[in-house]
Structures are given as structure tokens and as C-alpha cells.
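Structure record:
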Amino acid sequence: MTIILTPTQQRAVYYSPLSFLRGHEQSLATSFLEDLDKAINNGVVERIGQDVKIWVRYLEWDSQYFSCPTYRFEFSNWDSDAIGPATSVAEKLIELKAELLRRHGNYYLFTEIPSEDVVVLQALGLSGFRLIETRLTHYIDELESFEEQSSLPVRVARKDDAENLRDVAICSRNDFDRFHADPFFSDLVADDYLAEYTEQCILGLTDTVLVPDVDQLLPNAFICGTLNIDAPNEMHIGRLVLVAVAEPRRGWYRHLNSALLIWMKNNGMSYCVNRTQSTNRAVIHVCEQLGYRYGRSTHLLATYQK
């Protein structure tokens, strides 16, 4: 039976990080919209407007870490008979920027928009946002039948690896990632953030961090993965969270990615998703060789007042 989605539900599907899952569109839309309602009830998301509405989330941890009130524009919606919705959404965003300036004196406001939502992308341009990064999501399914494509051994990272892996995150940074491409963040702040995020992964932010185990040298490369991200219908989906490879381990991205897929398979995952910048041709090429397929594309945009 064919399920007909409303225009709001169809747009909500595009905003789901798993929008590439065919046959699950209604579950994805329902989950996304219900999560927004829960966040409003919990006081972490504001819904602003009537005929044209925008949803905005306050990010407490980010605000404290970067010493600047930080918000994420989550979603927007408008009545079906709205004329010129791009202009109307832009007006709401301009009003929001003025309100954040009034509240705080300074702010950082960003968003991640699926490529399909052309209306909102146009609204962001009209309201003074600028493009920071374009991301591609690839996925691999049927992990049950995935065969290891690397025989090089790996191990789980230890706490005493943290100093080396922090350095690896910094020295192998991608100048096109969100933090290094955004002029709001200095290179020092962006580097420190990546290093801190890496250490938190080792301490348990992700379910595993794998490193090379072929010699007695420092790891100089790592990959982080998480099991059972939110997914419809009890599907088992893992996510490659972060990876970095320093020069002494050149060529290890393929080995680490393959090892992570085996780890996911052994932990009952059927899918693994992986996001990277659209400019990261080398990573995309390796993913295609391992069997990943294109899933979706999104654009990160930001505006701020220092």
C-alpha cells in the first residue's frame, strides 16, 4: 500500500539523517517531528511564528565551550497557501537574529539543511547566512555479509593514547570541515575542539575507538564508532563518528574503516553510516571501494555576531 505523506511530512523526511532508507519514510517523518515536539516540551527548542514557523534549539554545552550563546536552526514550516515562503522564512530568521542580539549581545547561529529544501536554502541566503560546509552521507548495508578487507590488526584505544590521538586530530585536520572553514572559529579554537572531542571519544563518548596494532610505535591514527543510532522499526544502524590518520600511518584509513565495519558486524549492526565533506575525494573513493553507497547531502550554514 502506497502511503501519501503531507508536504510537512515529506520535508521532515529530508531532515532525517537516515532519509535514504527506502520504505521507512513515514516512520522517519514521525520520529523527526515528534522529537521536535518533545524538545519544545523540555524547553530546549523554541517554535517561533504562526503561518510561517521556525524551530530553534539552544545548545548549552556548545555555548559554554565556545563562550558564546550558540543556537541551531532545526526546521521551518509554512501553510500550504503561503506565497513566497522563502521570503517569509527569511523574515523570521532576520527577526530571530535581532532577538538573539537583544538577548545576548553576541551569538552564533548555524543550521544543517538537506539539499532538497531549496526554499529554506534560499531563505538562508536572503537572511545573511553563509555556506560553511557541504556534507555527504554514505552508507553500507547488509553488514552481515561484509568480509574483512584488511588483515592488519587493530586494538581499542587506551586512555594513555589520548595525547597522541589529540595530536593526530590536529595535524590531520581537514581545512574544509565545519570548524576550520568557518571564520567565526580561529584555527586554534577549531584545533582544540577536535582534540578535545577525540579525547572524549576515548573516554566513552563513542562506543569504540580503534587504532593500529602492528608495532610498538604510537598509534598515529584512529577511528571512532557508535552503535544503534536512532533508527526506525528497530533497525540496527551504527555510525562512523570520526577518523584521522597522521602521515606515519598513511594508507590506514581503509584498514581502520574495514576494521570498524567488522566490529559493527560483530556487534549486530546491519548498517553503518559515514559522513564526510563533499571535498574529501580520497575518503569517498575508499568508501566506494568498501561498498558504501551515496545516501544524502546537506549544507551547513552559519551567521553570528561577535
